[in-house]
């Protein structure tokens, strides 16, 4: 599919299935259930910066929510093998995210964009930054040299991420977002109106009371719980680690739905 083409909803659904961004995804059922179990057991690593208290201690309740919001197999007896993401739910969530981005652009809001999955989603976030900046939004510049996750936080094309030993880091940790927000507050700079992110970056911002939207894989239930509870505005279900160019039609659909022109 040409990258300058805006796909229809059905075109995008077909693309998501073909590239396994949704449909029969690479994340196994065993891995999904293990993460749901850890979240229910109170393992903070799997809470992605959210405070879930004692509200989600039933693994079956987590599975039920993930079936509803992500499209994993609902059958409790399905314990191993293939699991799924419903592409219709992915596109529904993209439409909801588009509403948030449209509002941000209309209000020329301050927006902070970040990723814990630079190997997959960096291009999605960079395109979002460019389109929001062109629409008049202020893309929040983070303070330099912030330590986090045994590395430091930096921005590339307006997207915050972690650099460790000259490598961009895949991290679920809320620590980098905590470092950014604490540094902004400590210097008297205003916090963002909106955070567009994934993993603990999105969860931490939402828990701090900032409007946040994010992307999450089917083995990252916390952000879906956060949306269900109203802490996170939108969570888009997808496989977050396919070849980066496969996300380009999805990004084009999102920006078009938000009324944002892609930056060439």
TrEMBL record:
Top-rank taxon? Bacteria
InterPro entries under this entry? Answer: Phosphatase_SCO2771
UniProt protein name: Phosphatase
What organism does this protein naturally occur in? Streptantibioticus cattleyicolor (strain ATCC 35852 / DSM 46488 / JCM 4925 / NBRC 14057 / NRRL 8057)
């Amino acid at each position: 599919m040409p990258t300058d083409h805006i796909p229809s909803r059905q075109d995008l659904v077909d693309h998501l299935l073909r590239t396994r961004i949704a449909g029969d995804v690479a994340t196994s059922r065993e891995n999904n259930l293990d993460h749901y179990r850890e979240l229910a057991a109170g393992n903070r690593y799997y809470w992605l910066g959210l405070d879930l208290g004692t509200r989600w201690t039933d693994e079956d309740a987590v599975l039920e929510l993930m079936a509803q919001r992500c499209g994993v197999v609902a059958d409790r007896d399905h314990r191993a093998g293939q699991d799924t993401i419903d592409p219709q739910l992915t596109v529904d969530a993209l439409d909801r995210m588009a509403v948030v981005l449209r509002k941000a652009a209309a209000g020329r809001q301050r927006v902070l964009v970040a990723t814990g999955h630079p190997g997959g989603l960096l291009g999605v976030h960079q395109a979002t930054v460019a389109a929001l900046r062109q629409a008049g939004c202020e893309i929040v510049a983070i303070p330099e040299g912030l330590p986090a996750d045994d590395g430091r936080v930096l921005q590339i094309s307006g997207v915050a991420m972690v650099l460790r030993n000259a490598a961009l880091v895949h991290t679920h940790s809320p620590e980098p977002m905590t470092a950014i927000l604490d540094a902004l507050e400590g210097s008297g700079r205003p916090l963002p109106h909106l955070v567009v992110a994934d993993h603990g970056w999105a969860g931490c911002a939402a828990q701090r009371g900032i409007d946040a939207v994010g992307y999450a894989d089917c083995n990252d239930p916390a952000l879906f719980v956060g949306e269900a509870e109203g802490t996170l505005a939108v969570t888009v279900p997808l496989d977050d680690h396919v070849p980066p160019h496969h996300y380009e039609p999805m990004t084009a659909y999102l920006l078009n739905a938000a009324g944002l022109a892609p930056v060439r």
